[in-house]
Amino acid sequence: KTMRSFNQPGKKAVKKLEAASKNDFATIMFHAVILIMALFALLPFVVLLDSSLSSESHILVHGYTLIPRHFSLDAYKFIFRSPGEVLTSYKVSIIVTVVGTAAALFFSAMGAYVMYRKDVKYRNGLAFYLFFTTLFNGGLAPYYILLVRYLHMKNSYSVLILSPAVNFVIYILILRSFIKSTIPDAVVESAKIDGANDMRIFLRIVFPLMKPALASIGLFMALAYWNDWWTPMMFVEHQNMFPLQYTLYQMLSMMNVSGQFGQHMGNVQLPKETFKLAMTVVATGPIVLVYPFVQKYFVKGITIGAVKG
């Protein structure tokens, strides 16, 4: 009996060690799979960067490679042949992206809070009206006439900031759902009992609690502003107001025209393929640098509210 009682704790310890080893093995395998998936996801970016540093002739003959065999900066030299133009475009893109994203987030959150309040009489009708505008619009010609003739927004920063924001209506509905699922009604009601008005409740209570959703939606808004080239093409004529994407678009168009013209006039070597890759690197660089700072909010904003409890 004594030996049996002595061996029982030892058996339990062995079982615990076996279970712990199995859990450790499963954890290691899980991390290994995630690491392999991350490497596969990173591989296209590595190929993009390395191919942009290759020579045009090497790309045309051998295609895209993981390691550049013929190192060349011709594509980047072509982009930065006028550094002042590119830097000005960077400045315009940064200003429009920061100001536009901040304003769009604030007013979208404010609209979501209004439709969240149960004492707003026609909040469901307003939500349907906003959703309806995402399905149908008046067309390009009325939109252009409205902004140019009646609102006088042509050749102004306001059109670069406000025009992409018309596509952000769906985010108001998403933020309303986020508020309903994460912020209890008792919090708002207790603030009203304490004498806080609606603006104070929104700024001091609701808006700070919306950080995860605002960060995840703000990333999509910032990408929309940063990648917008259609708005300046339609409404901006001054070169010092061109954002980066439209400047690169003009360079690519000019290179295509020059290449077609060079086919008839002689051999004109232009880094057309490597220019496209270098253009992608230049355009996505700032977004890649900013993303790690909002990643934790982005992940939380996606997962929060998915499971209640």
Give a description of the structure.
The protein has helices at 2-52, 56-62, 74-79, 83-116, 123-135, 140-150, 157-162, 169-182, 185-193, 198-209, 211-226, 230-235, 244-265, 272-303. The protein has 309 residues and is mostly helical. Helix 11 packs antiparallel against helix 14 (272-303) and helix 13 (244-265) packs antiparallel against helix 14. The longest helix has 51 residues, at 2-52.
Mean pLDDT, to the nearest integer, reads: 80
Share of residues in strands: under 5%
Poorly predicted runs are 261-266, 304-309
- The rounded Rg comes to 28 Å
Give the SSE string: HHHHHHHHHHHHHH
Shape: flat
Total number of helical segments? Answer: 14
What are its keywords?
mainly alpha; 77% helix; single chain; 309 residues; disordered C terminus; 0% strand
Describe the secondary structure blueprint for this structure.
Blueprint: H1 2-52, H2 56-62, H3 74-79, H4 83-116, H5 123-135, H6 140-150, H7 157-162, H8 169-182, H9 185-193, H10 198-209, H11 211-226, H12 230-235, H13 244-265, H14 272-303
Helix pairs in contact: 1-14, 4-8, 4-11, 4-13, 9-10, 11-14, 13-14
Outline of this structure?
With 309 residues, the protein is an all-alpha fold. It is 77% helix and 0% strand.
